[in-house]
Design brief:
The protein is mostly beta strands. It is 5% helix and 51% strand.
Length: 74
């Protein structure tokens, strides 16, 4: 996990879905600020009705997008 990566996690446990659906589909995204042991520090929108920094367990991350892999080198 690298600074600037986008991470994706399921809606269950993200704190952004209060509907009680109880699923773990992809549904929440944020930007990784930095790695901190078994956690990542993130910045996320739609968290407690605003943009917030959060600490997330790496094990809750379902996928990530590395800009280096996505954007070609010049």
């Amino acid at each position: 996990v690298n600074s600037g990566d986008l991470f994706v996690m399921g809606v269950r446990g993200s704190g952004s879905d209060e509907s009680g659906r109880g699923n773990n589909e992809y549904g929440h995204i944020g930007v990784v600020l930095y790695e901190d042991g078994d956690r990542i520090q993130t910045i996320e929108g739609n968290t407690a009705n605003g943009v917030r920094t959060r600490s997330r367990k790496k094990s809750d991350v379902l996928g990530r997008i590395r800009w280096f892999d996505t954007v070609g080198r010049d």
